[in-house]
Amino acid sequence: MKSKIRSEIAKLWQIAWPVLIGQLATVGMAVSDVAMTGHLSAEDLAAVALGASLWSIILVTVMGIMIAINAVVAHEVGASAFDKIPHIMRQSMWMAFGVGMLACLLLNASTFVFDYLQLEPEVHKKASEFVHVISIGMPAFAMYRALYSYTTSLNETKPVMVIAIIGLIFNIVVNWLLIYGQFGLPQLGSTGCAVATGLGMWLMLFCMLWWTHRAPVYHATFPFTHREGPKWSEIRSMLKIGLPIGVTYFAEVSAFCAVGLLVAKFGTVAISANQIALNFSSLIFMVPMSLGIALTTRVGQTLGEGDVVHARFVSWVGVGVGLVFAVFSATFMTLLRYQVAAAYTSDPAVQEVAANLLLLAAIFQLSDAAQVTLACALRGYKVTRIPMLIHILAFYGVALPVGCALGLAPDWMPWHPTKPMEATGFWIGLVLGLTVAAFFLSIFLHRLSSSRIAYHFQAQTNE
């Protein structure tokens, strides 16, 4: 059994490590935005924090929808039905283009939220500009993630890593040029971040198109050998899998981003500290997230082969690996939280609040790693609706209500502290929400995998 576990961990890691580097590089773009504007001014940092809250909600929702392609293609790879993949990908690119354009429109319309947050006029102006400019990258991001799912399902994750690193380097260089106004260029501050990130998304899309066109490994499944119009029936079947994943991602990320918007009433220090804690937590989260992407691929391929018993084994090995990492990440964040805060900002007040929030982030590492790997395993089964409902319950039924009660302490709530706990109260709510999600997802994965095995053996008996 030990050798079997080690073998599966090796297969997972072979897919996951380039994805991890790629994910870290992608998140590194957001980290560079926050860190570089944080050393320019508190107003620019607050603008990026608020603008990134809206951008992240839409961005991650789009990413969730595109994950459906991973599950669909992985099943065809497991079944060795490679001839079906080009058609699937042509339709997925049409889907991605439509989703990306819709996301761009929604992102631009969403800036009305800032009108209700009692923001300082300069922060309001900068945050709105950030959102309007960065939205140019949304269609490119959606199509990039479609190709991302395609290459990952083929176990080809090197381009994901290399292209994300190219995007990170581009982002840092253009940030440096435009945030600070180097070489006579205008000093754009937070808007410069938006320009760099938006253009970086288009660069990453073109790099992925070039790679899949040139690399021999894609020749048998390359989707762009001829033109093909959109077929709504097939796009709809992918959306039936992808939309619940998108809603799941929306529920989780919007809960975190809603916290960022709700703490705005407590001032610039609270906004900046919350963004630092959220930004660093997102960076650490990329490890279990990358394992989850690999797990979706492995479970999908195994089910495509018809081996339901091994699919359950693969699922729980992936969850276990995520939990082991969470122990180490929680320890790291607890011991080095003050150093992490200081790396983001030189403001002592922001450092103190951020360090306290990072301690709470350390506490939810286990439940966060568990819930993401469990959800990704379920996506390998092409089951997405029940996990969506579980996440909605966890974040909108637990995390945000508890967070509002503790953070805002409104008089109309039946229970609340005598004094608002501000950002700390909201993060306690997030800890509880993630724990609820992990608990119910683990029960559902156990029941689903067991029922699939029972059905499989019953079918064999009837034959």
Which of globular, elongated, flat, extended, rod-shaped describes the shape? Answer: globular
Number of helices: 15
Count up the domains.
1
Along the chain, the helix and strand elements come as HHHHHHHHHHHHHHH
What assembly state would you assign to the polypeptide chains in this entry? single chain
Number of DSSP E strands: 0
The assigned structural class equals mainly alpha
Cα distance, first to last residue?
Answer: 30 Å
Radius of gyration: 22 Å
Strand portion, in percent?
under 5%
Q: What does the main sheet amount to?
A: none
Task: Give the uncertain stretches in residue-range form.
Answer: none
Q: Please bin the fraction of helical residues.
A: over 70%
Mean pLDDT: 87
InterPro entries: MATE_fam, MATE_MdtK, MdtK-like
Transmembrane segments: 12-32, 52-73, 94-118, 130-148, 160-183, 189-211, 241-264, 276-297, 309-333, 353-377, 389-409, 424-445
Pfam family, one: MatE
Keywords: Antiport, Cell membrane, Ion transport, Membrane, Transmembrane, Transmembrane helix, Transport
